[in-house]
Amino acid sequence: MVPASLPITTGLRLLSYCNQTYNCGIALRPLLSLPSNYYSTAKPNRQQKNSNIPSLCLSISSFIPKEKSQVASKSIKTFCTSSNLTTEPSTPTTTSSDENVVDMTKIKDMANTLDIRVGKILKAWRHEEADSLYVEEIDVGEPEPRIICSGLVKYIPLDDLQDKHVVVLANLKPRNMRGVKSSGMLMAASDASHENVELLEPPVGALPGDRIWFGTEDEKETLPEAASPNQIAKKKIWEQVQPHLATTDSCVATLGGTHSMTTAAGVVVSKSLVKANIA
């Protein structure tokens, strides 16, 4: 720290200083020498004072060897003196290391408000007004089958859809798809290039209408109620959950790579796609 008073010898010596001792072994060095009578006891004319006294902003960093400067720069203070300049210490900008950490507990809680069910395609056909769409009639455990449109024409032959067990996201708002009201979405895995797409497959023994959740079989009894379609849209639940859905090295569908998509009969899988996105 700066001494409370400076000795008056042949001149007033201004010293650079720092608030820490550095490994580079920096010593205090004189930066400027002024005559001892520079500061008069008489009050100088303000205009004259302002015009004659230089403004000095001296930093110790200029005396640090280049290879040491990066280490020392974070703790260096600047010694400034001027007749009309007041300096305030700057407030360091800090960034929390947790700012970009995703709260997966929160994501998991949201994911389990999605109404994901086992479905069975009863019938499928080409959409009459859209070349890229199929229309499927699907049993999801309700009194009447649901009509769902899916853009799978490019990826899956029509015959492969007949009587197939699938995974259905059932609490999205219905959408009009070229004149056909679609009430849900088939969930599928795709590679990074989106050239290969496979429908997710429930385990053998799963029945239409069975609920699918993220977690272990023991968590089934503590699942929250499924959110309404309006809640899903308003809170953007699907948009927050979807980026965390992917398959593992063993093709198991998961949330965040750890929470498996689970039914009472076992886990949901992709037929062959590993580390694939799910949507």
Short description:
By secondary structure, this protein is an alpha+beta fold. It has five helices and 19 strands. 12% of the residues lie in helices and 28% in strands.
Helix/strand/pairing category: alpha+beta
Which percent range describes the beta-strand content? 25-35%
Q: What is the count of β-strands?
A: 19
C-alpha end-to-end distance? 61 Å
- Runs in which pLDDT lies below 50 for 5 or more consecutive residues are 1-36, 38-64, 66-97
Give the oligomer, counting copies of the same chain as homo and different chains as hetero: single chain
The value of Rg in angstroms is 35 Å
Helix and strand sequence: EEHEHEHEEEEEEEEEEHHEEEEE
The number of helical elements comes to: 5
Residue-averaged pLDDT: 78
Morphology: globular
Protein architecture, described:
The chain is 12% helix and 28% strand. It has 279 residues and is α+β, with helices and mostly antiparallel strands. The strands form five sheets. Strands 5, 6, 7, 8, 11, 14, 15, 16, 17 and 18 form a ten-stranded antiparallel sheet that branches. The chain is globular, with a radius of gyration of 35 Å. The two termini are 61 Å apart. The model is unreliable at 1-36, 38-64 and 66-97 (pLDDT under 50).
